[in-house]
Amino acid sequence: MAETARTTRPGIRAPMAPVAAALACGIVAGRYAPVGAYVWLATAAAGIVAAVATFRRAALCSVAMGAVLLAVAALGAARFRLGYFAVADDDLSTYAPARGRIFSTIRGQVVTAPQVVRQADLIAGYRPEPRTAFVLQAEHVQTGGDWQGVSGRVQVTSDGVLDALRAGQRVELIGLLSRPRPPDNPGQYDWSAAARAHGDRKS
C-alpha cells in the first residue's frame, strides 16, 4: 500500500503584542490627552490609508507596521472618548447645571437594591440619621415645565430608611439634581470620574 506524503506549511504568526500595546496606549491617550474623538478618528483613517499604500512594498514594511499601530491606537482613543466623555442628547445629566443643583421630579426604575448608609462618627455632637442610597434608571424628568423623556442612570440618596423600596420598582422622586463634584485636590476620590465610568449621575 502506497503511503501519501503529507506536507505541512508553517502558520504565519502575526505579532499581536505590539497591537495590544498600541491599543492600551490609545486608551490612556483617550483618557488624558485633550484631543477630541473626531481628531482621533481622522488620525486612524490616515494610518489605515498609509498602511494600505505601503504594506505591499518590502522596503516600507516597517512604515506599514507603524501605520497599523497608529491606527489601532487612534481607534482605541476614539472609542474611549466616545464612551467615557460623550452622553446622549436625552441623558439626564444634560438637565443638571454645571454647578449647583436644580429642583426636579424624576420617574424611573430602581436598578440596585437600596443600601442603608449610617454615619458612625458624630458631627458637631450630632449623629446624622441613616440615609438610603440606590441607582435609578431615569425615564422622565420635570424641571418646571412639561415632562421630558430621558435616559441614563442616577445615583440617588434619600434621608431615612426606605424599607419598602425594592430593585425593579418604578418610583417618582422629588428632590435636587446635581452633577458629581470633581475632587478638590489630587488626593481625594474622584466621584465624577467614577460616576462617568459607570454611567451614573448624582442626585
Description:
The chain is α+β, with helices and mostly antiparallel strands. The protein contains 4 helices and 7 strands. The protein has helices at residues 16-32, 37-54, 61-84, 191-198; strands at 102-110, 115-117, 131-142, 148-149, 153-159, 170-177, 200-202. Strands 1, 2, 3, 4, 5, 6 and 7 form a 7-stranded mixed beta sheet that branches. The chain is elongated and about 75 Å long. It starts with 15 loop residues before the first helix and ends with a strand.
Could you give a quick summary of the protein structure above?
By secondary structure, the protein is α+β, with helices and mostly antiparallel strands. The protein has helices at about 15-30, 35-55, 60-85, 190-200; strands spanning about 100-110, 115, 130-140, 150, 155-160, 170-175, 200.
Low-confidence region ranges: none
E-strand count: 7
CA gyration radius, whole angstroms: 26 Å
Distance between the termini: 82 Å
Helix content: 25-40%
Overall body shape? elongated
